[in-house]
């Protein structure tokens, strides 16, 4: 499965405990990542500073559902 353009549920719903630029204490659940652009893209994509948990996340129907709202709901429930 390919990531949906403009979704970014994985950059909003889950918490991230890893420190990263702009977020030295990680990211709380439900808070958009500081590296999420207005176009819902990751400004750390492909960079060494990107947390391993982010780089390791792969879009799958079980996590992403059928649309962005479902993805946020699923990932929030998993949190």
TrEMBL record:
Superkingdom, taxonomy of origin: Bacteria
User: InterPro entries per the record?
Assistant: UPF0153_domain
- Recorded protein name is Zinc-or iron-chelating domain-containing protein
User: Could you tell me which species this protein originates from?
Assistant: Saccharicrinis carchari
């Amino acid at each position: 499965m390919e990531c949906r353009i403009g979704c970014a549920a994985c950059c909003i719903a889950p918490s991230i405990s890893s420190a990263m630029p702009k977020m030295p204490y990680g990211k709380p659940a439900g808070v958009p990542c500081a590296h999420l652009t207005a176009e819902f893209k990751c400004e750390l994509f492909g960079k060494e500073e990107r947390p391993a948990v982010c780089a390791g996340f792969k879009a799958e129907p079980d996590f992403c559902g059928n649309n962005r709202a479902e993805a946020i709901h699923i990932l929030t429930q998993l949190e």
